[in-house]
Here is the input.
Amino acid sequence: MKILVTGGTGYIGSHTVVELQHKGYEVVIVDNHSNSSAEIADKIADISGTKPTLEIFDLADQALTADFFKRNKDLKGIIHFAAYKAVGESVAEPLMYYRNNLVSLMNILEGMKENNIPNLVFSSSCTVYGQPDELPVSEKAPIKFAESPYGNTKQISEEIIRDTLHASELNAIALRYFNPIGAHDSSIIGELPLGIPNNLVPFITQTAIGLRESLSVFGDDYETPDGTAIRDYIHVVDLAKAHVVAVSRMIDSNMNQKFEIFNLGTGIGYSVLDVIKSFEKVSGLKLNYKIVDRREGDITKVWANPDFSNEVLGWKAERDLDNMVDTAWKWEQAYRGKTIASSH
Ligand code: UFG
Here is the structure.
């Protein structure tokens, strides 16, 4: 059972490749390494014992993508992660985001159609809900006007998939992620942002390891119990497992409709200060942080209603916030080759 994982050397992709291999799938990765490197394939092999096949090219290149699919007609499914994902960068470089994220998706859908490869799992995001009117947010909540070109690429991608499915024999599952954090228990793979991290947990662990001076907490005047913004953090390994469940559901022809959409969250919201407290607890360290102004474009609070994915997809997030933060911290120390002793 051969599965293509685009972006398979990235953060969520690499964890998903490991889980697919655990379930006996053969994995081919296509990645252009715009935000990762080839050594991740070796790290995957260190964990699973099997090195995935790796092809390095850009899926936005139509000819190369068409050629890849011609050579891989035996694929049973595709999990498409490869995309740009930085909200701020997308505001500065919208065309780069639209071209990369949308053209690659269209090339993949064309390759699927041409070669009768029916099953696509697509990486979507809770960003499509904006600031929802009701919490927890279910899959039935309306799509809100996108806050960023990045968010818009996720909305448009879902529309492109829906229209293509309508006119073809293809099937798809879109998974709307809440906030993925954490790392593999082996500490061999984890989240490695290029340059200064945009996201909370990598910024926390890089501050604690000494790479950053201090964490800026963006706003403490939100309408939340402690004033800081609330998100639904989900362990990347739980998220990875959901992709395996989704692709198996398609291969086993268990779908209820051609296009299914599922939230991937725990259903629990934590504030920025909750995450900091969890970090201080699991690491035994005091984190250097300061409260600063709100970050433009941030919403106040969002967390998932995971009932539909729990019941219909048959998947449930299992790991708690402390485990997410603990694995992220262990990975940061392993990656930097440094152990920071607890101050307790
Ligand atoms: N935060 C800080 N300081 C930081 C970084 C983040 O206080 O240095 C806060 C943010 O203001 C927010 C929370 O921590 O309240 C989480 O921020 P992240 O940047 O980690 O995550 P976001 O919720 O902003 O973004 C994530 C994904 C996006 C996706 C979005 C959808 O990274 O890809 O969720 O809501 F679009």
User: Anything to note?
Assistant: The longest strand covers residues 119-125. The mean pLDDT is 97. The two ends are 50 Å apart (CA to CA).
